[in-house]
């Protein structure tokens, strides 16, 4: 037969933890649980030393400062940069035992201070030179730039000499399919002589205009003229724009043509009484 104590024993891990926790509270047993977030900082042992040399970032010669024991033992003492502060040295220097000493982190060597002074002096000279240059520029009056403009008469003469009588432009023609024969009357057959005679129209009375894709505008003509004038020293000074160019005959639109042919244009110069006439040919592009 099983023991009654054995049957009442906790069967799961959580029950065991709950029972042990209640016993710990009764007997006030300290729990050694780890508390996250808290870190134990290791205490760094320091010793007070007497500086025998100027040490940048620590202090001048003769100062008493705290320093880590490892730095003193491994670096400063072998290099005779500092000595240990013994009881005899404390009495000799007159340093009290309870006096709080701190390192002078602002202390710099003579070389560092010299470099800082030279840098500061250089920056002052540069700032003074910049201010002097700005003052000189403000005092100087701007130099006017004079552009020699051509007279309207001179511009007309240059255009007459440089612009060729005929200017060629090219466009892709639009091909139109033959339209079906139109029936004149329902009572007349297509194949009859009367129908053919009535439908026939003289080609001389039928104006034929072959359209092109796009157009040739006054802006295109002005760009062409500027390219021609740019090759001459005096021609570069002629001012011309699309507003100075116009078509003599009616073209359907004011400033462009959309079909093949020969057209006459007028070139005007602002202020000039005369105009120049030239011919442009819109040719079919192969």
Query: Pairing-aware structural class of the strands and helices?
Result: alpha+beta
Specify the number of helices: 8
Helix content: 25-40%
Count of DSSP E strands? 9
Any idea what the radius of gyration is?
53 Å
Walk across the major sheet and give the strand order. Answer: 4-9-8-6
**Overall residue-averaged pLDDT value:** 76
State the shape. Answer: elongated
| Order of secondary-structure elements | HHEEHEHHHEHEHEEEE
Q: Spans with pLDDT under 50 lasting ≥5 residues?
A: 192-196
Q: Give the terminus-to-terminus CA distance.
A: 119 Å
- Strand % is 15-25%
The description of the largest β-sheet is:
4 strands, mixed
Keywords:
single chain; 4-stranded mixed sheet; 3-stranded antiparallel sheet; alpha+beta; 8 helices; 286 residues; elongated; 9 strands
Task: Explain the overall architecture.
By secondary structure, the protein is α+β, with helices and mostly antiparallel strands. Among the domains are: 43-129, Ribosomal Protein L9, domain 1, CATH 3.40.5.10; 152-177 and 208-284. 33% of the residues lie in helices and 17% in strands. The chain has 8 helices and 9 strands. It has helices spanning 4-8, 13-27, 69-76, 87-93, 110-139, 152-162, 193-199, 218-229; strands at 46-51, 64-68, 82-84, 166-171, 211-217, 245-247, 256-259, 261-267, 276-284. Strand 8 and strand 9 (276-284) form a beta hairpin. The longest helix has 30 residues, at 110-139. The protein is elongated, with a radius of gyration of 53 Å. The relative contact order is 0.09. The model is unreliable at 192-196 (pLDDT under 50). Residues 48-92 form the Ribosomal protein L9 domain. One of its GO terms (molecular function) is structural constituent of ribosome.
